[in-house]
Amino acid sequence: MPAAVRFGVNYTPSEGWFHHWLDFDLDAVRADLDSIAALGLDHVRVFPLWPYFQPNRTLIRPRAVEQLVALADAAAERGLDVNVDGLQGHLSSFDFLPAWTRTWHRRNLFTDPEVIEGQAAYLRTLAAALADRPNFLGMTLGNEVNQFSAGPHPDPDRASEAQIDAWLERMLAACEEGAPGRLHLHAEYDATWYQDDMPFTPAQAARQGAVTAVHSWVFNGTAQRHGRTSVPTEHHAAYLVELSKAWSDDPHRPVWLQEVGAPAPLIPPEHAAAFTAATVANALDCPDLWGVTWWCSHDVARDLADFPELEYGLGLLTNDRRPKDTARVLAEAAGRTHVPAAHRTVALVVPDDPAARSRCAPGGPVFDAYFRLAADGARPTTVLDTRADDKDHLAARGITEVVTPEQVLPTPQGGTSS
């Protein structure tokens, strides 16, 4: 019997946002966790800020690590499991990188040997500190660290696909050394699936680490093109879950919808609950879904400056810990018994070549064909062009029909069908 789908939230402290690590208040954390547990959720994803925890390459602050453990223990008291992101990294438009990697000490995050050893020591230390906690799920290497490796970042740390392969292998090994047997993974934003020159690739996302993680944000052109109640907008998270499966070597590899939220003004606050309900329902129709972790727990306080406007209101709960309608929707979903999703039998062909990923992005032919199928009532998944004739692979995934985007989309005016 497949495991039950997990429901959780990305924990954004109500007091001080992630800067709360500078003035750590366990009572405030407990109050936040109480408000999360009251929704019936079962886990939180938490974010140490890397420069606060490792301000020097050879200094990992013991007091900061103790505070992280105290947070995990407080979560356990409330029945909440904990996933810990290590290399923060990037959060809500702000970069948090230690001084020993920037300006006068500028070194590449993914290729410099000393930086890599410092990162590995940090991840291993955090994992080891939590290894004996039953509610510790495991480590995520960092939050969307791929954004540092290519444009549109203003100062990227360029690396090749092979160098990223080696970096991921080293970082995941460090987590395993610290906490053997836990759910250690890496997680990137959707450029991994959509951007042709991104050195973090779909194959890495779907094959390295214990589960595949996807982050779904409809401000990537989806909601702008199609509107808030469209099939592409309401099924975008499900699309990423199913798109990721094309590259997996395991036909039933779990996929974690690790970030998804309702960003205003594309999803106005008065429509956020409906968007949440549709997004969750469609994601639950994906087989092998590990869990849904909403972004985020609490709003950002308005007295904190310079956030993009949409970041202030993404919480399930207000800054004073009152649940919104979105919280009630997620709580209702978490409280229901869910029948495991059936196989998706129709597979759309996607290119194996990472230089052709833009075909899968909003406006691309794979993207458009997938949602044409979904709008017609099909429950599509995806398969690589290099596996489209592999009968054993298709059978293992329950796929009985394979179609190309050209077979799904109308022929352009003046063109001929292929």
Automatic annotation (TrEMBL):
The keyword Hydrolase applies. Keywords: Hydrolase. InterPro entries: GH (IPR017853). It comes from the Bacteria. GO terms for molecular function: hydrolase activity. The keyword Hydrolase applies. Gene3D superfamilies: Glycosidases. This is Glycosyl hydrolase.
